[in-house]
Write a structure and sequence with these properties.
alpha/beta; FAD/NAD(P)-binding domain; five-stranded parallel beta sheet; disordered N terminus
């Protein structure tokens, strides 16, 4: 099949990445999966096993957020835990075993207004009968120099994921919304103390969460303050906070720092193509379907509530089954 799309000759454009189609294959797929975290990889395992020609466009960081996670203890099947990159490597290898084509590239534009769907990357273009959006969400960062240095070394963006690593330690949580108070309350199960640092003198969180946090003897609030620096040798040992009213700085001892100032769904490229909510998350209905027939979504790109590797994988499985059923019905008409 030859299709000229904005100057790209689809048949003559080779897929680049760690897997290249054999001679004679073109750039049209049954399924294109955009994103390569647990949702994308799981979906590709199912679709490839179902003999659907599948392309995964991984983005610049194959494996997603788990590639920056040092240890995963809550993913079933690994009684002694597993580090994030290793888990993602296993998922990728399992998917490739069933014939999935992997492409390390960024999607720059999509066209879901006509069929086959068109997906553009920095170097090529592809068409597909169905698309899965599994681009995830990115935690908002503090924006300080030491943040990246200590990420995964005592600095975390997920209390549910990493809380048990901080037993009997002093913990600092940054934020003032529902997520921050939920994480602070959860961390009191493990930490000796939990200090919530918030840049204002009032919280944005719901009243019931505020009441629970104020009543918890382990939680202390530090108002009108921002994190200026993180210190430590090989892991976090203290944070430097600055009072936004007086500019006074002080050092807080901390074995762990949890950043809970929100997430940004990675959906900029899909604006105007599928329906998004007011925060930018993909809206789904009837399982994993978007408002565009043939376009599906799975994982943190629509799930702003759970945000776990196992739930993302579950949504990936659901999406693959939805895609397989939709394609089968479409092709039998």
């Amino acid at each position: 099949m030859t299709l000229s799309v904005d100057g790209f000759d689809i048949e003559k454009t080779n897929v680049k990445g760690n897997h290249t189609p054999s001679n004679g294959e073109d750039n049209h797929f049954d399924v294109v999966i955009i994103g390569s975290g647990p949702a994308g990889y799981t979906a590709s395992i199912y679709t490839s096993r179902a003999k659907l020609r599948t392309l995964v466009i991984s983005g610049s960081l194959p494996g997603g957020q788990l590639m920056t996670t040092t240890e995963v203890e809550n993913y079933p099947g690994f009684p002694n835990g597993i580090n994030g990159p290793e888990l993602m490597m296993y998922m990728q290898e399992q998917s490739e075993r069933f014939g999935t084509t992997m492409l390390i590239d960024e999607v720059t534009r999509v066209d879901f207004n006509s069929k086959p769907f068109k997906i553009f990357t920095g170097s090529s273009a592809y068409t597909s009968d169905s698309v899965l959006i599994s681009t995830g969400a990115t935690p908002r960062k503090l924006g300080i120099k030491s943040e990246q240095e200590f990420s995964g070394k005592g600095l975390s963006y997920c209390a549910t994921c990493d809380g048990p690593f901080f037993k009997n330690q002093d913990i600092v949580v940054v934020g003032g919304g529902d997520t921050a108070l939920e994480e602070a309350t959860f961390l009191t199960k493990f930490g000796k103390t939990v200090k919530v640092v918030h840049r204002r003198d009032n919280l944005r969180a719901s009243k019931i969460l505020q009441e629970r946090a104020f009543e918890n003897p382990k939680i202390e609030f530090i108002w009108n303050s921002s994190i200026m620096n993180v210190k430590g040798d090989k892991k976090v040992s203290s944070v430097v906070i600055k009072n936004t009213n007086t500019d006074e700085e002080k050092n807080l001892e901390a074995g762990g720092l949890f950043v809970a100032i929100g997430h940004e769904p990675n959906t900029a490229v899909f604006k105007g193509q599928v329906d998004l909510d007011e925060k930018g998350y993909v809206l789904v209905k009837n399982g994993t379907r978007t408002n565009i027939e043939g376009v599906f979504a799975a994982g943190d790109v629509h799930d702003f509530k759970y945000r776990q590797a196992i739930t993302a994988a579950g949504f990936g499985c659901m999406a693959a089954l939805d895609i397989e059923k939709w394609l089968s019905e479409k092709r039998s008409r």
